[in-house]
Amino acid sequence: MKRVRTSRKQRPPKQPASAEFEVTIETLGGEGDGLARLDGRRIVVPNALPGEHHRVRAQGDARGTVLAESVTCLDQRPRATPICPHFGSCGGCVAQHLPANVETAWKLDMVRRALRRRGLEPDVVSAHQSPPASRRRLRLAIDHGGGRARIGFRARRSREVVEIATCPIATAPLEQAIVALGELVATLETRPAEVALTDYAEGVELVLRGAAEPMLADRERLSAWAEAHDLARLGWRSGGVVEPVVVRREPVLHWPKLSVAPPLEAFLQATAAGEAFLQERVTDAVAGAARACDLYAGIGTLSAAALAAGTRVQAVEQNSEAVDALAGAGLDAEQRDLDRRPLQPAELASFDVVILDPPRRGAEAQVAALAASAVPRVVYVSCSPVTFARDAAVLVAAGLDLTRVDVVDQFRFSAEVELIGAFRREKGP
Known about the structure:
Helices cover 24% and strands 32% of the residues. It has helices spanning 100-116, 172-187, 216-228, 272-285, 301-308, 320-328, 345-348, 364-371, 385-397, and strands spanning 20-24, 27-28, 34-38, 41-45, 53-62, 65-75, 123-129, 137-143, 150-154, 161-163, 192-200, 203-210, 233-238, 241-247, 253-255, 258-260, 291-295, 312-317, 332-335, 353-356, 377-382, 400-409, 418-425.
C-alpha cells in the first residue's frame, strides 16, 4: 500500500535581505527598539515608537527575528528631540527620542513583564527619574586605530567606538574631563583600552585600564595631566589590579551616620538623586528593626540608610578594599563571596532584616538560604528585572509577601533600570 505523506506546517518565507514592507509598531523591546509582528515573525525597528506605521527594509533575519531599518514613517507619534548630537550612532543611549512619559512606561513594562513571567503581580510604581546631566560615573572605550585615540561609547550591536565630544547625561565635571582626555591618551606610550570616570565632591576620579602597567614617562604625563585638570585622583588598572598613580585629594562619602573613604573604582550609585531615593526607601523598610545585615554591601550606601533608621548593621562584601573602607569607617564588615558561601539560616537568625544589592546576575544561592531562614524582612535592590523576578519568586514561595516594587530610573535614555522591593514574611519558612 502506498503511503501518503502529510504536509508539514509551512513556515512563512524569509524576507529577502533587501525587501521592503510595512509594519505597525506594537511595543518597545528590552533595548528600546520598536517591535512589530508580520507573518509570524518578530520585526525589530530601531528608533520607532508604539503606534507608528513604518515602511522598513530588512537588514537580517536570525531565528525568526528580522532586524529592519525604517525607510519612511507613515504615521509618526509625538517624539522628544534628542539632547545629544551623537544619539543614533553612539550606543550609550537608546531612548532619547522617547517622550519622558513613554520612557517611564517602557521601563515599568520591562519590570512588570519580568515579574509576570514568574507569576508575580505586585504594584509596580515609577518612583524616581534622574534628570539629564546627573550621571556621576561613566565607563568609556578607547580605540587607537587610524593613528589617533578615539574615546566614547561603542556603537549599538558593534565593537566600533563612537567618539564623543559631549555627553549631556553626565555631570559637567565628567563631561569636561571627557573632552580633555583625548589629548592625554594620545601622548601615552602604554595604550589604555578603557577609562572609568567618577565625579566626587572632591573632584573627578579617573581610572585607565590597560594590558600593561604604565611606563615611567607615562606616569609623569599622567601626573602632570591630573594636576593641570585638578583631578582628585588617577589610577591605572592592569592584570586585575588597580594602582593609584596620582592622589591629590582622597574622596569621602558623607551620610548622616556613616562616612566612607571609597577605594579606587568603587561602585557608586549612578546619580546622587537616585542614591538618595534608594536610601529613603531602605530607611523606611527597616524602621523598627534592631539589627540588619547588608549583603553585597559595596561601600555602604544601603548600610548608611539602615544606620539612619537607628538599626545596627553588619555588612558583608566580597571586595577586600571595600571591606577595609567599611571597617575604617567603624562598620562591622566581613569579606565573603556570597555566591560560593552564602550566609546560612543559622547565621541569619539574629537579624530582623536583610538588605541586599547584588550584581546583575542576582543572588540565587543567597536567596535560597534566605528562603529557608526565619528572617522576617528582606529589602532587595536590583539592576536586573529578570534576576530580581527569579529571586523574588523564591522568596514569595517561602512565605514572604511582596506588595510593591519601586522603579528607579537612574540610567536615563538607556535600557538599564534599577528597582527596589521590600518583602515581609507572612508565614513560617
